[in-house]
Amino acid sequence: xxxxxAINGSPQMEKGNTALVLASFIxxxxxxxxxVELLYASRLKVKPCSCGVMYCWNDGPGECCIQDDMQLLYPxxxxxDVLILATPVYVPLPGDMQNVVNRLMPLIDPKLETRQGRTRxxxxxxxxxQKIVLVATSGWREVENCDTVVRVVRELAEDASVEFAGAxxxxxxxxxxxxxxxxxxxxxxxDAVRRAGSELVGQGRMSQETLKMISRPLF
Length: 219
Ligand SMILES: Cc1cc2nc3c(=O)[nH]c(=O)nc-3n(C[C@H](O)[C@H](O)[C@H](O)COP(=O)(O)O)c2cc1C
What we know:
The protein is an alpha/beta fold. About 35% of the residues lie in helices and about 25% in strands. A hairpin with a 2-residue loop joins strand 4 and strand 5. It binds flavin mononucleotide. The site of flavin mononucleotide has 16 residues, from helix 1.
């Protein structure tokens, strides 16, 4: 069975657009037989990386010296096959989410190698994550508003030498609702998001057709 950890970085947590899209994605994954644990970056107490000297690489490889909720998160991440990072676009990330992303550093083994002209590392052997997926919502209409966030998460995956399994992007996400009710178009988007979750688990990848359907203009 595929085990996933999803981290929702929206300060709006359960009430936000990101939660709406992520809930459908998780539904699709669980329908296809996956187990997904959902956590909220803003509910966890995660401080910014403050040592600034790569303690987790140099002094205590694999260990973070900051004692906060990341210490609860590390074992969950090590056991997961898939990491889902879900976030609103804030050019690029909300602060709590950025803290979590920075604090993933102890999972990375500092044996650096050069691949295709870039310095890359690998996850420690006891970290199981095989794929990283992005789920992002944005306010403005064009899907290109998500480009910076996609770049951040793709870089993270490439730095850690795991597969970037793709991005579920919903620009202009407020347009999925009118007067707080999900529109017909919004329901069609959420159906496609569920399909993307099921495809990821069932086929190991999300189809371009499904991802395009999710990101399509709603006007
Ligand atoms: C501080 C802040 C910065 C934002 N920056 C952008 C942006 O650069 N581009 C964009 O398309 N939307 C931007 N938005 C809109 C959010 O990405 C969008 O409303 C998102 O769906 C909110 O998700 P949530 O309800 O889960 O928090 C911003 C919102 C906030 C609060």
